[in-house]
Amino acid sequence: MEFTWVPAASAIAREAGSVLRAFFSKGVETEYKGDVDLVTVADRASEKLIRERLAAAFPAHGIYGEEGTRDRLDGAFRWYVDPLDGTTNFAHGFPQFCVSLGLEQRPAGLEPDADGQLVAAVIYDPLRDELFTAERGRGARLNNSPLRVSRTPVLAESLTATGFPSHKRHENPNIHFYNEFTLRSHGVRRAGSAALDLAYVAAGRLDGFWEFNLNPWDTAAGILLVEEAGGRVTNFSGGAFRLDSREVLASNGRIHSELQSLFEDLFAGRNIQPIPTPREFAEQRAARTASIPL
User: Fold this and answer.
1) Within this chain, do residues 126 and 249 fall inside the same structural domain, yes or no?
2) 57-86, pLDDT tens digit by residue?
3) What is residue 56's DSSP assignment?
4) pLDDT digits (tens, 9 = 90+) for 169-191
5) Do 19 and 132 lie in a common domain?
6) What is the C-alpha separation between 99 and 125, in angstroms, rounded?
7) Which of 25, 75, 97, 216 fits a disulfide with 243 by CB distance 3.0 to 4.6 angstroms?
8) Collapsed DSSP state (helix, strand, coil) of residue 212
9) 274 located within any domain
10) Which letter, b or e, does each residue of 100-123 get, where b requires 16 or more Cβ atoms within 10 Å of its Cβ?
């Protein structure tokens, strides 16, 4: 069987990306969905276009979109649509955002709250003109070149990424994990688009990614990309990832057990490094400098 999901979805993502580029070049008005959860006219324009194009290309497929689209969800296929992942970046003129489309196949008789199988993925970065695609069993690609995850063997040599919620940040524990991962790795990036972070793990640009409280439209496409590029995706304890999971841990596979062990330690309160005061930091730095031979 020759699948047509990715070529059609790629064309749709590119068209939606051109809409976002046009808005981005002139600036857009923003409003708030919650305390600090930005939404723009660009989000809605992009989702409207995607909804119309998907309905025309795949009339039997369901669509589950971030901006409220809920169409034909009882069918065998369902698209998870983020028309603009990285809205806060977009609204502030920070050039890190994308369009994300992930397709789930749901066999007959599947319980409503059970996961089907992710079978196709498209993530498009319109500013870099980078198109990340994957189909189940056929690998992952970037602008038609094959993707593989990195070969970084240990956390200490890795570059990872995470994100923070746009609201109720004080209730989210991730700042503690951010600190610990930063101390144990080459660095942690917080670029503001979970879909692109996952695509970057698939491309080997990042070695791992974790985040709390994401939604299916944030993760569906990126999860398949990572898996098809040879990586691994679980929850924090190493269990199977679910689309409605409140936690996602993705990696090149080589550092995954270290990541899981670190989460286990941190949740249990073990091996947590105290944060030094500015004075303590200066003293530690001076001591390290003094120990270096001339």
Assistant:
1) no
2) 999 999 998 888 887 888 899 999 999 999
3) H
4) 556 678 888 988 998 999 999 99
5) yes
6) 7
7) 216
8) strand
9) no
10) bbbbbbbeeeeeeeebeebbbbbb
